[in-house]
Structure formats: C-alpha cells, structure tokens
Input
Amino acid sequence: MTPSMRSRKTIKATVMHVAVLALMTTAVVGCNRGIKPVVNEPVKLVQIAQPISLLQPVFNVSVDNKKAIKQDPLSLQVGYDNEQLVVASRGGDIIGFDNTGKRLWSINIGKPITGGVTVDAFSQTAIVSTRDGQVLAFDTTTGAKRWEQQLSGSVLTPALITNNRVILSANDGFLHGLSLQTGQSVWQFATQVPAISIRGTAAPVLLDAKTALLATADGRLHAITADNGLPQWSRRIGVGMGSSEIERMSDVDGMPIVDSNQLFAISYSGQLIAIDLASRQVMFVQELASLKALAVNNKQVIASSLDGKVVAYDRRTGQKLWENDALAYRKLTNPVMIGNHIAVGDLEGVVHLFDPATGTIVSRVQTKGALTTLQVKNNRLLTQSTSGQVAMWQVAR
Output
C-alpha cells in the first residue's frame, strides 16, 4: 500500500468517524438502549514553558442570558467597522457598541438570531437574519429598522454586502441577492442540495470587485455576478468517496479565502485546494478535512482539522511545513492571522497563539464559553462565545 493510499484511507476514516459518531449519538437518544459511542476526549492543555504577551484586552461584555444560550448553539459573529460594533444575541437582542465597549443602543426583535451581523460602514447598515428565514436591516447609529425580507430558508452565516447588494446563502440551497436600500429580492440562484449534509453554510465572500464566491453543501464553489446573480463559473472541490450518503458528504462550510490572486478552500470530505485565479488552474490539493475557514499569510495557508490539528502548508507548492496536535479534539475554531501570529480558539474559550515559523504555541488569552469563530478586523481580534461573551483584543505594544 502506497503512502498516498494510506493517507486517503486515514482522511476517510476521520470523516466517517465524526459523521457516524453524530448519527450514533442521535440514535442512542432516540432508542435509549444504553449503547455508548466512543468519544475522543479533548486533550488537556500543557502549560507554555515561557509564554509571551501578545494580546491585550480592549473590552469584554456579555450579551446573552442563560435562557437564550440554550436556544441554539450556532456561531454568531460580530459586525464591526472602524468606529462601531453591532452584536446579536440568540435571544433576539441587537446591540450597538462603540470601539471601547460602551453601549450605544439596544433593541430586541423577538426572534432567535442565527446569522450573526454584517455591518456596511458606508451606508451605516447592519444586517441580521433569524431562524425562520427573516432578514432585517438596521441603522447602525440608532438601531432603527430600515426593512425586512422573508427568505425561503434560514440563514446560518453573516451576509456579504457589496455593490448595493446583500448576498445571503440559505440552508435550503438558494443563494439570494437583495437590494441594500429596500431589501427587495433582486435575484436568486439555486444549488443542488444533498440528502444528507452538515448543518451550516459558508459565508459568501468577494472574489473580485464585481463577483461573489459562494460555497455549498454539495462540495462546490460558485462564482456569481453580485449585481444580477449571473453564474460565472462553478468548480467542485469536495469529493466524497463511498457507497453511502454519509460517506459521500462533501460540504464546504468554511468560508473560502481569496488573497493575492489565489483562492483557498477546504471541504469536510478532506480536500484542501489552492487555485490560481489568473489561469483558474489548480495549484495543489492536500488531504485534510475541516469545516472551518482557512487562514493565509505571505508564505503559508493554515488549517484547523476536524480532529483538532493545526497544520501549515506552503501556499504555492502545498508542501506541509508543520503540524501541531497539542489541541486534539478541542473543537477548534478557524485560524486567523493577528499581528505576526496565528490564533485559534477552542471549546473552553481559550485563544491559542502560534509562532508561524515553527507551529509552537507561544501565548494564550481566555474568555468565557466555547468559541466557534474568530474574526480579525483592523488588526483587532474579535470573539463571541456560545455563552454570550463578546471580547476584543489588540496586539500588545
């Protein structure tokens, strides 16, 4: 058996373990026969020998109550521009803060919010979406509602605002383009919905000034003109292998990354792909499974895998540069670049900072509650935990 064949079998086994484990857990709850699936316990953290101070806190606030926290474990992301943050809670609160954490306004829409917040600084508009597929726009300075629109399915990720369009990916396979000014539907784009997929969708991103890039549950990337929803191209990157629908799951739930005319994306079925956008040719494919967005710097593309590894590859050749398994099974967030270091969060609210040259953990900061997504805006790190803690850090001086 060749090394590449062993690697493919390892990836497939990892993906199958996670999928079957989820289904086994559901079956046990339903039939109550006392069957206990094997669960990999998260590794315990090892103290850093000589930690260095890399991040200093800007503020930390709580936006959820205990009742709201139990409603939905989905990730909620913070909307942020240079001067203001807009934060949503699972209980339906939408709160405006200045960049020091001072509360400016607060409203409650009476429905659970699922898609986080997107802020457009130019139009001073914040967009949120709800569990029942409602999309709402608010004035970021006052909290006044500007419009609302009902979609065919719920939206589980933040919108993309570009070219006077609000672009959203719904969990029923439809992509929507709405007018930023009125909320009116301008276009819809239907994608194939597999019979079984992971709950969640990737947030749409800009491919270029006029084109949105959307990843879907069938393992594809779609490039669509933002203004009118016309398809430009489509490419499959997730390829599930096997005889069952579970084995063939190929979701792309991690937001694709576009940087320096290169496109990077990763799938649940175990393909990390790099594409040269000038030629639209594949630069490399590496076998790694993840549901989280990638991070890039000048030399590397960095991923957090399903089983809790943090791995760095050369962004041009795909050569593996280092791998760190010190956070195995700790339900890692997406990696991000903050300052000159890589940050990854975990299920205990710890943010770990890695030296990108060696892959060594050199620093940590702590918040309260499990982290699902990290964001970096204007060189500040933003987190919102599942327990409702919103925190901001900046690079220490």
Notes: Residues 3-31 form the longest helix (29 residues). The mean pLDDT is 84. Residues 87 and 140 are 11 Å apart (CA to CA).
